[in-house]
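Structure in, sequence out. Go:
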């Protein structure tokens, strides 16, 4: 009887489903819909499943915004440098009204780009920073599954990529935007 109890306990513990195994059925069709028409999944291996808290939710969103700003920064820098060169050029010459108006137009274009493309993300980062000070770092919000994706493109090229998919407590996929806006 004593030998039977450890075997029974091992059986019970072994029956508890691994989160990696539970995540895969939800991840596979989701990724298949995202990799593009003509591309086919060869293999997906979920190598890590973490829990995500409110604080991590804020951190993920902040990281996304920071990367977005970083992608737009070179364009913003080019616009700023062009504006600066234009202003200096016209200040050094006795610019007539046409050139003066052109400087104003270039400045307006730069301001518009900055206000529409960069400033909203910067403002949102400020809000997230304030929220992070009050965020819960322990309460479960979702799972964050990391997987290696192997797929074949329409042109038969083999690709390997790492993907991160968010899942709710029932292991259903959550879109990133829905996760950031608590719509799951």
């Amino acid at each position: 009887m004593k030998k039977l109890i450890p075997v029974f306990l091992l059986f019970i513990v072994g029956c508890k489903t691994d989160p990696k195994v539970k995540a895969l059925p939800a991840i596979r069709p989701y990724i298949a819909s995202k990799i593009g028409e003509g591309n086919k999944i060869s293999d997906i291996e979920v190598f890590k499943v973490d829990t995500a808290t409110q604080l991590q939710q804020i951190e993920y969103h902040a990281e996304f915004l920071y990367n977005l700003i970083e992608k737009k920064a070179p364009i913003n820098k080019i616009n700023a440098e062009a504006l600066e060169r234009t202003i200096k050029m016209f200040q050094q010459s006795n610019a007539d009204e046409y050139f003066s108006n052109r400087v104003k137009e270039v400045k307006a274009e730069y301001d518009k780009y900055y206000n529409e493309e960069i400033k909203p993300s910067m403002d949102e980062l400020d809000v997230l920073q304030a929220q992070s000070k009050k965020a819960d770092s322990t309460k479960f919000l979702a799972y964050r599954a990391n997987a290696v994706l192997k797929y074949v493109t329409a042109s038969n090229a083999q690709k390997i990529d790492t993907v991160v998919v968010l899942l709710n407590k029932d292991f259903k996929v959550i879109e990133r935007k829905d996760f950031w806006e608590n719509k799951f």
